[in-house]
Amino acid sequence: MACGHLRELELSAAVRRGDAVEIVGLDQDPDSIEVAMELARRLNCRVLAHTASIKAVIKRSIPLAEFDLVYAAGLFDYLDDKVAALLLARMLEAARPGGRVLIANFVPDIPDVGYMEACMDWYLRYRTERQLRDLLEQVPTELQGEARTLHDPDQNIAFLVVTRGQGPSTHRSRRGL
Question: Which of 15, 82, 100, 166 is 20–30 Å from 42 (CA)?
Answer without folding.
Answer: 100
